[in-house]
Input
Amino acid sequence: MTRGRLFLVPNTLDFGMDGQEVDLREVLPDAVLACAASITHWAAENAKTTRAFLKRVGAIHPLAVPLQEQRIHELPRPPKGRGPAANAATAAATEDKAWAALLQPALDGHDVGLISEAGMPAVADPGARLVAAAHAAGVEVVPLVGPSSLLMAIAASGLNGQSFAFVGYLPVDTAARAARLKDLESWSAREQQTQLMIETPYRNGALLQALLATLKPGTLLSVSCGLSLKDAWTHSASVAQWRQAPKSLPDKVPAVFAILGAR
Output
């Protein structure tokens, strides 16, 4: 039996932006939309948002099967907390089976779409484990073209795009966050490597204030806000310049923060 493929289907970056939905055709190539319309089996970060995405796709390309017949299964979520070793082993085995089940349609000959709530799946989003499982099982992995907030932010920043790292979320605790920022700034200055980070939108302002309070005046700071949305913007300047003319950040719009330490 011919095996199916695992398609990495990019989503738009307007997740949760009520009233600011972009036209899919402005951010996703038509070939990607046509491919998404042809897929009937999905491994999704969130089933509800995947149905919303497919509804938008269906308005452009007819879906292979009606929306209510799409096979959408959510990615396993890691268990919270740690129990006894025996329970942990059982939980790990159960999780392994759940990931294997997501790949089974591809082994049965069906193409599977991996999709997250926004942007490129498996990049700053869950799904890498399924991609790794596909490689291990000999299932072809096909990444599709679409928006990635991290790449868009680094391109728009003017910071070093030849060497960069995504460090995810910083600690919420004030002291721990400051210590982490100092470590990242020191590494960035020494290696001349741009450091990218994100925050839950309602804490955007708090992270910006922490950056301005902690980083050295000569460090470059870039913030990209609402990428691909109508009012998107990117501002790059030294920390000293940011302090002289601070900008306020919306608390409901995603932002990407980037720093590059001065030599």
Notes: The radius of gyration is 20 Å. The chain has two domains: 6-143, 149-260.
